[in-house]
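User: Show me a protein chain along with its predicted structure.
Assistant: Here is one chain, sequence first, then C-alpha coordinates.
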Amino acid sequence: MRRRAGDGRRGAGATRRAGARVHRPGDRGLVPGERTVTACLDKWAFAGAIAGIPAPGTALGGPGALPGPWIVKPRRGRGSRDVHAVHDPADFPTLLRRVPEPIVQTLLPGREFTADCLIGRDGTVHAAVPRWRTQVRGGIATRGTTFADPRVDELVERLTGALGLTGLVNVQGFLAADGPARVVEVNPRCSGGLPISLAAGADLVGQYLRLLLGGAADPAALRYEPGVTTVRSFTEHRVHGFGPDVRVAEGG
Protein backbone atom coordinates (compact mmCIF):
# COMPACT_ATOMS: atom_id res chain seq x y z
CA MET A 1 0.00 0.00 0.00
CA ARG A 2 1.29 3.47 -0.80
CA ARG A 3 2.05 5.78 2.06
CA ARG A 4 -0.13 8.62 3.24
CA ALA A 5 1.34 11.80 4.68
CA GLY A 6 -0.57 13.10 7.66
CA ASP A 7 -1.28 12.81 11.34
CA GLY A 8 -4.90 11.68 11.24
CA ARG A 9 -6.26 15.15 10.49
CA ARG A 10 -6.61 14.52 6.75
CA GLY A 11 -3.81 16.47 5.14
CA ALA A 12 -2.35 17.91 8.36
CA GLY A 13 0.80 15.89 8.84
CA ALA A 14 4.34 15.66 7.64
CA THR A 15 5.07 14.77 4.04
CA ARG A 16 8.07 12.51 4.42
CA ARG A 17 8.63 10.50 1.27
CA ALA A 18 11.07 7.61 1.17
CA GLY A 19 12.89 7.38 -2.11
CA ALA A 20 10.96 10.23 -3.73
CA ARG A 21 12.21 11.16 -7.17
CA VAL A 22 13.17 14.76 -7.98
CA HIS A 23 11.11 16.28 -10.79
CA ARG A 24 12.18 19.41 -12.58
CA PRO A 25 9.52 21.87 -13.75
CA GLY A 26 8.26 20.76 -17.13
CA ASP A 27 9.16 17.08 -16.68
CA ARG A 28 5.52 16.04 -16.90
CA GLY A 29 2.13 17.16 -15.71
CA LEU A 30 0.73 16.22 -12.35
CA VAL A 31 -2.32 14.42 -13.68
CA PRO A 32 -3.54 10.81 -13.57
CA GLY A 33 -2.20 8.53 -16.28
CA GLU A 34 -4.18 7.00 -19.13
CA ARG A 35 -4.70 3.67 -17.34
CA THR A 36 -6.05 5.47 -14.29
CA VAL A 37 -8.41 7.69 -16.28
CA THR A 38 -9.72 4.74 -18.29
CA ALA A 39 -10.46 2.76 -15.12
CA CYS A 40 -12.21 5.70 -13.48
CA LEU A 41 -14.43 6.63 -16.44
CA ASP A 42 -15.64 3.08 -17.10
CA LYS A 43 -17.60 1.95 -14.04
CA TRP A 44 -17.42 -1.72 -15.00
CA ALA A 45 -13.64 -1.52 -15.44
CA PHE A 46 -13.46 0.45 -12.19
CA ALA A 47 -15.17 -2.36 -10.27
CA GLY A 48 -12.52 -4.78 -11.49
CA ALA A 49 -9.61 -2.41 -10.82
CA ILE A 50 -10.52 -1.95 -7.14
CA ALA A 51 -11.23 -5.60 -6.33
CA GLY A 52 -10.87 -6.13 -2.58
CA ILE A 53 -11.60 -2.49 -1.66
CA PRO A 54 -14.98 -1.82 0.04
CA ALA A 55 -17.46 -0.93 -2.71
CA PRO A 56 -20.97 -1.87 -3.83
CA GLY A 57 -21.53 -5.15 -5.64
CA THR A 58 -21.62 -4.41 -9.38
CA ALA A 59 -23.18 -6.32 -12.29
CA LEU A 60 -23.23 -5.52 -16.00
CA GLY A 61 -26.53 -5.37 -17.89
CA GLY A 62 -28.77 -6.55 -15.04
CA PRO A 63 -28.90 -7.27 -11.30
CA GLY A 64 -27.85 -10.91 -11.51
CA ALA A 65 -27.58 -12.25 -7.97
CA LEU A 66 -26.95 -8.84 -6.38
CA PRO A 67 -29.04 -8.15 -3.26
CA GLY A 68 -31.33 -5.11 -3.36
CA PRO A 69 -32.24 -2.38 -3.22
CA TRP A 70 -30.26 -1.36 -6.27
CA ILE A 71 -28.95 1.53 -8.32
CA VAL A 72 -29.06 1.49 -12.12
CA LYS A 73 -26.66 3.85 -13.91
CA PRO A 74 -24.77 4.11 -17.22
CA ARG A 75 -21.49 2.28 -17.49
CA ARG A 76 -20.01 5.54 -18.72
CA GLY A 77 -21.80 8.59 -17.40
CA ARG A 78 -21.42 11.83 -15.49
CA GLY A 79 -23.41 14.42 -13.62
CA SER A 80 -25.77 11.83 -12.08
CA ARG A 81 -27.60 11.53 -15.42
CA ASP A 82 -29.75 8.41 -15.88
CA VAL A 83 -29.14 7.23 -12.31
CA HIS A 84 -32.15 5.45 -10.80
CA ALA A 85 -32.83 3.79 -7.45
CA VAL A 86 -34.72 0.50 -7.75
CA HIS A 87 -36.73 -1.01 -4.92
CA ASP A 88 -39.05 -3.19 -7.01
CA PRO A 89 -37.42 -5.75 -9.39
CA ALA A 90 -40.39 -5.25 -11.74
CA ASP A 91 -38.87 -1.86 -12.68
CA PHE A 92 -35.73 -3.40 -14.16
CA PRO A 93 -36.99 -4.18 -17.69
CA THR A 94 -37.94 -0.56 -18.36
CA LEU A 95 -34.86 0.98 -16.76
CA LEU A 96 -32.41 -1.40 -18.39
CA ARG A 97 -33.80 -0.38 -21.78
CA ARG A 98 -33.75 3.30 -20.94
CA VAL A 99 -30.26 3.61 -19.43
CA PRO A 100 -27.38 3.40 -21.94
CA GLU A 101 -24.96 0.53 -21.26
CA PRO A 102 -26.51 -0.07 -17.83
CA ILE A 103 -24.71 -1.40 -14.79
CA VAL A 104 -26.46 -2.35 -11.57
CA GLN A 105 -25.07 -1.85 -8.08
CA THR A 106 -26.34 -2.62 -4.60
CA LEU A 107 -27.55 0.57 -2.92
CA LEU A 108 -25.14 1.34 -0.07
CA PRO A 109 -26.24 2.32 3.44
CA GLY A 110 -25.03 5.43 5.23
CA ARG A 111 -24.35 9.03 4.20
CA GLU A 112 -22.83 10.07 0.91
CA PHE A 113 -19.53 11.94 0.96
CA THR A 114 -16.92 13.37 -1.38
CA ALA A 115 -13.23 13.69 -0.50
CA ASP A 116 -11.07 16.22 -2.32
CA CYS A 117 -7.59 14.70 -2.53
CA LEU A 118 -4.11 15.93 -3.41
CA ILE A 119 -1.71 13.13 -4.29
CA GLY A 120 1.95 13.45 -5.28
CA ARG A 121 3.71 11.79 -8.18
CA ASP A 122 5.11 9.13 -5.85
CA GLY A 123 1.68 8.23 -4.47
CA THR A 124 1.93 10.25 -1.26
CA VAL A 125 -1.53 11.40 -0.17
CA HIS A 126 -0.87 14.95 0.95
CA ALA A 127 -4.51 15.76 1.69
CA ALA A 128 -7.92 14.13 1.73
CA VAL A 129 -10.67 16.53 2.78
CA PRO A 130 -14.04 14.78 3.11
CA ARG A 131 -17.41 16.48 3.18
CA TRP A 132 -20.99 15.30 3.41
CA ARG A 133 -22.93 15.76 0.18
CA THR A 134 -25.91 17.29 1.98
CA GLN A 135 -27.56 18.71 -1.13
CA VAL A 136 -26.78 17.78 -4.73
CA ARG A 137 -28.13 19.34 -7.93
CA GLY A 138 -27.15 18.06 -11.34
CA GLY A 139 -24.39 15.98 -9.82
CA ILE A 140 -22.79 19.00 -8.12
CA ALA A 141 -22.89 19.47 -4.36
CA THR A 142 -24.61 22.77 -3.53
CA ARG A 143 -24.49 22.28 0.24
CA GLY A 144 -21.79 20.40 2.10
CA THR A 145 -20.10 20.12 5.49
CA THR A 146 -16.51 19.02 6.04
CA PHE A 147 -15.79 16.26 8.55
CA ALA A 148 -12.93 14.04 9.66
CA ASP A 149 -12.89 10.24 9.77
CA PRO A 150 -9.85 7.94 9.53
CA ARG A 151 -11.90 5.42 7.54
CA VAL A 152 -11.92 7.86 4.63
CA ASP A 153 -8.14 8.23 4.90
CA GLU A 154 -7.70 4.48 4.68
CA LEU A 155 -10.01 4.26 1.68
CA VAL A 156 -8.11 6.99 -0.20
CA GLU A 157 -4.80 5.24 0.55
CA ARG A 158 -6.03 1.96 -0.86
CA LEU A 159 -7.53 3.56 -3.95
CA THR A 160 -4.31 5.45 -4.61
CA GLY A 161 -2.38 2.19 -4.60
CA ALA A 162 -4.89 0.30 -6.72
CA LEU A 163 -5.48 2.96 -9.36
CA GLY A 164 -2.21 4.90 -9.41
CA LEU A 165 -3.93 8.17 -8.51
CA THR A 166 -1.99 11.41 -8.69
CA GLY A 167 -2.76 15.13 -8.72
CA LEU A 168 -6.12 16.59 -7.72
CA VAL A 169 -8.81 13.89 -7.66
CA ASN A 170 -12.04 13.33 -5.79
CA VAL A 171 -13.41 10.19 -4.19
CA GLN A 172 -17.14 9.63 -3.73
CA GLY A 173 -18.58 7.04 -1.41
CA PHE A 174 -20.75 6.20 1.58
CA LEU A 175 -20.02 6.08 5.27
CA ALA A 176 -22.27 4.32 7.79
CA ALA A 177 -22.11 4.42 11.59
CA ASP A 178 -19.99 1.28 11.57
CA GLY A 179 -17.96 -0.59 8.99
CA PRO A 180 -15.49 0.80 6.46
CA ALA A 181 -15.88 3.73 4.11
CA ARG A 182 -17.09 2.39 0.75
CA VAL A 183 -16.22 3.91 -2.60
CA VAL A 184 -18.75 4.46 -5.38
CA GLU A 185 -16.52 6.23 -7.86
CA VAL A 186 -13.30 8.19 -8.30
CA ASN A 187 -13.16 11.21 -10.58
CA PRO A 188 -9.61 11.86 -11.89
CA ARG A 189 -10.02 15.63 -11.57
CA CYS A 190 -10.89 18.25 -8.98
CA SER A 191 -14.55 18.29 -7.93
CA GLY A 192 -17.21 20.88 -8.60
CA GLY A 193 -17.55 21.24 -4.82
CA LEU A 194 -13.85 22.02 -4.31
CA PRO A 195 -14.67 25.53 -2.93
CA ILE A 196 -16.03 23.82 0.20
CA SER A 197 -12.60 22.33 0.96
CA LEU A 198 -10.93 25.66 0.19
CA ALA A 199 -13.32 27.47 2.53
CA ALA A 200 -12.37 25.00 5.28
CA GLY A 201 -8.74 26.10 4.97
CA ALA A 202 -7.10 23.45 2.77
CA ASP A 203 -5.03 25.19 0.08
CA LEU A 204 -5.38 22.32 -2.37
CA VAL A 205 -4.91 24.44 -5.49
CA GLY A 206 -1.87 26.33 -4.24
CA GLN A 207 -0.16 23.16 -3.06
CA TYR A 208 -1.00 21.38 -6.31
CA LEU A 209 0.83 24.15 -8.15
CA ARG A 210 3.83 23.79 -5.83
CA LEU A 211 4.03 20.08 -6.59
CA LEU A 212 3.52 20.69 -10.30
CA LEU A 213 6.50 23.06 -10.35
CA GLY A 214 8.75 20.58 -8.56
CA GLY A 215 8.39 21.91 -5.02
CA ALA A 216 7.22 20.21 -1.84
CA ALA A 217 3.74 20.47 -0.40
CA ASP A 218 3.39 22.48 2.82
CA PRO A 219 1.50 20.37 5.38
CA ALA A 220 0.41 23.45 7.33
CA ALA A 221 -1.30 24.87 4.24
CA LEU A 222 -3.34 21.68 3.86
CA ARG A 223 -4.85 21.62 7.33
CA TYR A 224 -8.58 22.12 7.33
CA GLU A 225 -11.41 22.68 9.78
CA PRO A 226 -14.07 19.98 10.13
CA GLY A 227 -17.64 21.21 10.53
CA VAL A 228 -17.45 23.99 7.92
CA THR A 229 -20.65 24.27 5.89
CA THR A 230 -20.98 26.15 2.62
CA VAL A 231 -24.01 26.70 0.40
CA ARG A 232 -23.96 27.40 -3.33
CA SER A 233 -26.79 29.33 -4.93
CA PHE A 234 -27.70 30.17 -8.52
CA THR A 235 -29.16 33.50 -9.58
CA GLU A 236 -30.85 34.39 -12.86
CA HIS A 237 -30.64 37.93 -14.23
CA ARG A 238 -32.61 39.71 -16.89
CA VAL A 239 -30.18 41.37 -19.32
CA HIS A 240 -30.38 44.02 -22.03
CA GLY A 241 -28.31 44.14 -25.19
CA PHE A 242 -26.10 41.56 -26.85
CA GLY A 243 -22.41 40.70 -26.97
CA PRO A 244 -20.08 43.38 -25.53
CA ASP A 245 -23.03 45.72 -24.98
CA VAL A 246 -24.93 43.37 -22.68
CA ARG A 247 -25.86 44.77 -19.27
CA VAL A 248 -27.79 43.43 -16.30
CA ALA A 249 -31.15 45.08 -15.75
CA GLU A 250 -31.50 46.95 -12.49
CA GLY A 251 -33.27 44.95 -9.82
CA GLY A 252 -33.06 41.70 -11.67
